Amino acid sequence: MLRYLAFNRYDLKSFGGFLLDLYRKNIIDIQQADDTLLLIKRTDDLKSLNKSEQKAIHYLFTQDEPVFNVSKNSALKIKRAAKEIEKDLRQSLFKFLTKLNSGYLFFSLSMLFLGELFISLFAINIAQTFGVLLISTLISISGIIIFSQDPQKLWLQILLKALGCLFILFSVLIMAAVVSLWCILFVYLSLLTIKYYTAAYAQRNGLLKSHIAEIEQLRNRLIRHHDNIVLGREIANQQPSIWALDMEKDFISEPLSEFNKLPALLTFMKKFSA
Questions:
Q1: pLDDT tens per residue, range 7-16
Q2: Which of 57, 129, 205, 262 would suit a FRET pair with 198, their CA atoms being 20 to 30 Å apart?
């Protein structure tokens, strides 16, 4: 997440940051001898990790093997684990942005539901009309969310687009049975406006702006405490952030602390970037 916020991307180096975070949590050890790079599983207690992170570890350490040799032959396992962490990042980012937008979403949807209640007051059966509008709106929101998903697999994209369209079409048919076309237009124009502004606020110059500014403060703090970090065990806690912010070269200096795994991660990048 830190690397995504800093540079707006997920890449192989992001997965390297995940490995450093596992080392920080004492779940794996990272050992390097010349050009050989080994990941050693220290524990089977993975309760501190979410399901996607646990699954990524199982991709690496298959059949309960405690040692994973990082090489070109293991590229497929690395790729699978990295994809799992990328999926977890996208899910975490969606939850994070939804939380940031929660105030706007609550206000906007409340106004929409009040508008639907106002429309229902002109119907003969107020409760039934409002109930139909409310349920149809919730179905429409689900359809829009499903339609907006953008998975990497083409067949899954087509499936989600089709499913989203079916949800939306179904909700339109329900509303058409109890209200006029103008009411349906009101509901969908409102939903599209909410979707547009929700996406706009989630941009880097929107609600994320203050969080991106905090990253610059973190960068300055790492530079300011450079000497204390590199000399002791603190490097183990800070190197995931150092790595994510492309500051590793500033923290590799002799004599290296035994907890400093940044050179090993540079070897990791060299093996898979060539």
A1: 888 888 999 9
A2: 129
